[in-house]
């Protein structure tokens, strides 16, 4: 079954709606320039209310170690996600599993990134844009993805309309969505979250049926 991460959750209501829709994980954006940014205290209040089996993920973009540690002091996140140029040594110092993002800029050296982050719990492939490190709603050319024998997550411009094709073509272990399940920047929409996860489950079902045929 394809796992689903909903990124950019800002309130207990959004977390509850994501969980009710069937999300496996929710992400909190600790990047002040984002319309989805939350403070450590805001995220901590949501994490306290999040059902036990939903994984909570904190996103950082070239934050300092002090900033990450201060957030972890008050917000018991399950996992960290790094969207900038962070080294493996930086990502591993917090004693939490981490997801490393590879932004698909034209010149990215994917094998080198994979080697550097060989201890990452998962690799997330996202679209690249010079003026924003993530959550852009842009897709990228999926044929650029490497074949991987380790956990990875597909992100970048996913919606209820294209996630089925992504699963059929690429069989990602997990998908990540933000803008595609919003009604306005930073506002997660319960109906869109349900539609997105329904599309994921339908694609999983088709894959299962095809494999059995
Ligand atoms: O969501 C943001 O605003 C954001 C800002 C800075 C770094 C990362 C950010 N989001 C990270 C995510 O994991 C998004 O879900 C991912 O980039 C996909 O976003 P979208 O294309 O809108 O589905």
Automatic annotation (TrEMBL):
<keyword id="KW-0413">Isomerase</keyword>
<dbReference type="InterPro" id="IPR011060">
    <property type="entry name" value="RibuloseP-bd_barrel"/>
</dbReference>
<dbReference type="InterPro" id="IPR001240">
    <property type="entry name" value="PRAI_dom"/>
</dbReference>
<dbReference type="Pfam" id="PF00697">
    <property type="entry name" value="PRAI"/>
</dbReference>
<dbReference type="InterPro" id="IPR013785">
    <property type="entry name" value="Aldolase_TIM"/>
</dbReference>
<keyword id="KW-0057">Aromatic amino acid biosynthesis</keyword>
<feature type="domain" description="N-(5'phosphoribosyl) anthranilate isomerase (PRAI)">
    <location>
        <begin position="4"/>
        <end position="198"/>
    </location>
</feature>
<comment type="pathway">
    <text>Amino-acid biosynthesis; L-tryptophan biosynthesis; L-tryptophan from chorismate: step 3/5.</text>
</comment>
<dbReference type="GO" id="GO:0000162">
    <property type="term" value="P:L-tryptophan biosynthetic process"/>
</dbReference>
<dbReference type="GO" id="GO:0004640">
    <property type="term" value="F:phosphoribosylanthranilate isomerase activity"/>
</dbReference>
<keyword id="KW-0028">Amino-acid biosynthesis</keyword>
<keyword id="KW-0822">Tryptophan biosynthesis</keyword>
<dbReference type="InterPro" id="IPR044643">
    <property type="entry name" value="TrpF_fam"/>
</dbReference>
<protein>
    <recommendedName>
        <fullName>N-(5'-phosphoribosyl)anthranilate isomerase</fullName>
        <ecNumber>5.3.1.24</ecNumber>
    </recommendedName>
</protein>
<comment type="similarity">
    <text>Belongs to the TrpF family.</text>
</comment>
């Amino acid at each position: 079954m394809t796992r689903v991460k909903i990124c950019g959750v800002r309130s207990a209501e959004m977390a509850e709606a994501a969980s009710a829709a069937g999300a496996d994980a929710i992400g909190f954006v600790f990047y002040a320039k984002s319309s989805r940014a939350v403070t450590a205290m805001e995220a901590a209040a949501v994490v306290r209310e999040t059902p036990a089996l939903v994984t909570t993920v904190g996103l950082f973009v070239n934050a300092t170690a002090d900033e990450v540690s201060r957030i972890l002091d008050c917000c018991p996140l399950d996992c960290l996600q790094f969207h900038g140029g962070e080294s493996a040594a930086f990502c591993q110092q917090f004693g939490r599993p981490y997801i490393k993002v590879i932004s698909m800029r034209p010149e990215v050296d994917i094998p080198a990134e994979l080697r550097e982050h060989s201890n990452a719990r998962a690799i997330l492939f996202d679209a690249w844009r010079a003026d924003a490190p993530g959550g852009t709603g842009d897709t990228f050319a999926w044929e650029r993805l490497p074949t991987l024998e380790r956990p990875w997550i597909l992100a970048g411009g996913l919606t209820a309309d294209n996630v089925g094709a992504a699963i059929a073509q690429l069989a990602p272990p997990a998908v990540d969505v933000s803008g595609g399940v919003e009604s306005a920047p930073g506002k997660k929409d319960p109906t869109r979250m349900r539609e997105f996860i329904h599309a994921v489950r339908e694609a999983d079902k088709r894959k299962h049926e095809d494999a059995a045929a």
